[in-house]
Amino acid sequence: MLSWLKNFFSSSEEKQTPVITPVDDRASAQAADDIRIEKSLVFKKLGDGCWSTGSWADAAGYYRQALALNGSSAAIHINLGFVLIEQGLLQEAKSHLEQAIVLSPGLSDSYFFLGKIAQGMGDPDAAITEFSRAVSVDPNFVEAYETLGILYRDRGEIKESVAAFRAALAINPQLHNCHTGLLFSLQYLPQAHPAELFSEHLQFAGQFEAPVKALQRMHSNNPDPERRLKIAYVSSDFHAHSVAIFMLPVLERHDRAQFEIFCYYNASVRDIITEKIQQAASHFLFCENLSDAELDQRIRADGIDILIDLNGHTGNHRLLTFARKPAPVQVSYLGYVDTTGLSAMDYRLTNEDANPSESDRFYSETLHKFKDRLWWSFRPVEDLREMTELPALKNGFITFVSANNISKISDVNIKVWSELMRSIPDARLLIMGTTSPGAQRVLERKFKTEGIELHRLDFKGKLNLAAFREQVMQADIALDTFPFNGGTTSCETFWQGLPLVTLTGESFASRVGYALLNNLGLPELAAANAEDFARIAIELSRDMQRLSALRQGMRARLAASSLSDELGFTKALEASYRGMWRKYLEKAKPE
Length: 591
Hints:
By secondary structure, this protein is α/β, with parallel strands linked by helices. It has helices at about 5-15, 25-50, 55-70, 75-85, 90-105, 110-120, 125-135, 140-155, 160-170, 175-185, 195-210, 240-255, 270-280, 290-300, 320, 390-395, 410-425, 435-450, 465-470, 490-495, 510-520, 530-540, 545-560, 565-590, and strands spanning about 230-235, 260-265, 285, 305-310, 330, 345-350, 365-370, 400, 430-435, 455-460, 475-480, 500-505, 525. This is protein O-GlcNAc transferase.
């Protein structure tokens, strides 16, 4: 302990010389209390100092000593609760935060940290309750609103999610991650028109790209159109994530004679997929701790010619680095379903099925559209099980399945699916990926409002891949979500032998299902409206022969489609990169 602190305690505890005059007992007790509280504050300050350096265990020790002297301090209970959360001691942290609420119910931090504990314990419903209490106590609690935006979205309450993000931004418009959260949640709203979405994305650019445009600098890359190019991918998802799984075949098949491959990883999670990507890339850099200015400098120092963003407006993106234009050519790809809104982003990879020509005006990027193929390839994790018999043949009824994130199940989905269920009274609906009891209750309430008996619904929580596949194979027909279609889950559904019925909209997110089906030679399963959706699903459910044939032949369809052509796709992607580089050099030529 610091010497001055030792002196502080020893001096107050030394035996004093007896005084002659009488002592007032109440005054003496008050003086002792004052000294005790003063000592407690010293320990609290020491704990605060350790907090500031991230020394959680030391901070906890000092806060415990402070509480031993002054157990009625709500502030110390809250601080101890926080550092215990950082140590993973959630139950002990919870008890201190609950005590803080007893002592002082008007402190919003207690509810906020209890919400964090509920998140850590896998109870998003309790977390929503606590964060809601935090903002009721403090209507300006930005972090609580932002977290509510994420939790509501995960529970499928999209209007509430949008409202929470907007509330946070009304308090602090400079929160770019919060703005990203809003843009992502807006994709789930059926009433959101592409023009409105584009306007929202341009607002992000106006808020965050415009101020750094002055920091953009000239590039000194070698202007040889045919030389070996330096290609870099930036992502926070180089781990067991759909983006990484789609990218791995490309990284493994890139032509190293023509391209030098860099990966900038904006996260710390490491797993077997991370290792495979590290092995496939020429260079791999963990960049999470680099500022935008530092990452900009590193990309320039590496001499990157074409920089590809794999996040878009998803968590832990580096769009503010892209706004600085560190590479001559910048591309948005794969991770997000819409424009970035940035003028610094030159291209977005897609195809005509997902982005017909009339949609071009809703993008800040030039849409680079692949011909006669999708904009990715799909490599399923090996599954040696043989395809099973159509479940309806033994069950005696049709089982539909929604395999997507429940946040994608819009109110329009509920109405259309309910109409379908009413038309086939003995059909069942399996809903995958229910995140919590609260999320299930939200869906149950909506289906009940539509008159669907709950015994016809079967909810499953989040499952690992093997369990997911096992459940999907218990169904006969997959129902796509809209306006936010499935992607990875749709490919997995095909792999398990199920046909997919989708509803095609105007936005990219609502046209992925059609693009997939068209690629597999099944465009007739893509509906143009709600009535068409029900008709297609009903007709398919009545044709056991066709359903059985589709089930047994779906993997062969996948194998024969461009989705399985990893090398062909990689070559097409590389040709696109080369073309972009040449166009850049043409534009860069002096007049």
